[in-house]
C-alpha cells in the first residue's frame, strides 16, 4: 500500500502549484490583451468599414434605381408629349390641306363663274352685233324695197311709216 515511484510522479504532474497558476493566468491575460489589441480591434474595424462600404453601395444602388426610375418616367412623359405633338402636327397638316382644298375649289368655281360670265357677255355682244347687222341688212332691203315701191307711187310718209314699223318689229324679235 505504499506509493510507488510512479505514483509519486503522477502526483507531481497533478500537483497544483500556485505560481504556475498565476503564470498561466498572466500568460492568458497577455494573450487575451494581444488578441484584443492586435487581432480583435483591427478585424472589428475592417468588418465595420466593410459594413459601412456595403451600406454606401446599397444607398448608391437605391439612388441609382430611383434616378433610373425618374429618367424612365421622364422618358415616358417626353415620349407621350412627342406623340401628342406629332398627332397635333398631323392634325394641323390635315386641316391645312382641307383648307387649301376648299380654297382651290373656291378659286376653280370663281374662275368657272368668271369664264361663264365672260362667255355670256361675249354671246350677248355677238348677239347685239348680229342684231345690228341684221337691222342694217333689213334697212338696206327696206330701202331697196322702198325704192321699188316708190317707183309705184307710194308717198314718202307712207314709205317712212312702213320702214319704221318694219324696223320696230324686227328690233323686238
Task: Write up this protein.
The chain has 173 residues and is mostly helical. It has one domain. Helices cover 93% and strands 0% of the residues. The chain is built from 3 helices and no strands. Helix 2 packs antiparallel against helix 3. The longest helix is centred in the middle third of the chain and has 134 residues. The termini are far apart.
Largest sheet: none
Structural class: mainly alpha
Radius of gyration: 66 Å
Give average pLDDT, whole number. Answer: 84
Into which percentage range does the β-strand content fall? under 5%
Kindly report how far apart the N and C termini lie.
182 Å
Number of strands: 0
Question: What is the count of helical runs?
Answer: 3
Shape: rod-shaped
Number of domains: 1
Helix and strand string, N-terminal first?
A: HHH
Contiguous low-pLDDT stretches (5 residues minimum) are none
Q: How helical, in percent, are the residues? A: over 70%
Amino acid at each position: 500500500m505504499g506509493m510507488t515511484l510512479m505514483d509519486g510522479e503522477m502526483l507531481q504532474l497533478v500537483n497544483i502549484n500556485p505560481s504556475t497558476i498565476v503564470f498561466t493566468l498572466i500568460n492568458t491575460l497577455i494573450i487575451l490583451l494581444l488578441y484584443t489589441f492586435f487581432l480583435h480591434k483591427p478585424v472589428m474595424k475592417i468588418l465595420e468599414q466593410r459594413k459601412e462600404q456595403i451600406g454606401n453601395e446599397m444607398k448608391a444602388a437605391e439612388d441609382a434605381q430611383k434616378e433610373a426610375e425618374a429618367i424612365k418616367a421622364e422618358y415616358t412623359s417626353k415620349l407621350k408629349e412627342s406623340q401628342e405633338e406629332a398627332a397635333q402636327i398631323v392634325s394641323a397638316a390635315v386641316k391645312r390641306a382641307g383648307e387649301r382644298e376648299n380654297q382651290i375649289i373656291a378659286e376653280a368655281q370663281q374662275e368657272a363663274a368668271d369664264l361663264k360670265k365672260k362667255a355670256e357677255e361675249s354671246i350677248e355682244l355677238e348677239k347685239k352685233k348680229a342684231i345690228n347687222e341684221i337691222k342694217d341688212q333689213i334697212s338696206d332691203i327696206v330701202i331697196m324695197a322702198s325704192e321699188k315701191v316708190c317707183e309705184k307711187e307710194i308717198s314718202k310718209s307712207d314709205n317712212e311709216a312702213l320702214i319704221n314699223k318694219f324696223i320696230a318689229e324686227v328690233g323686238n324679235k
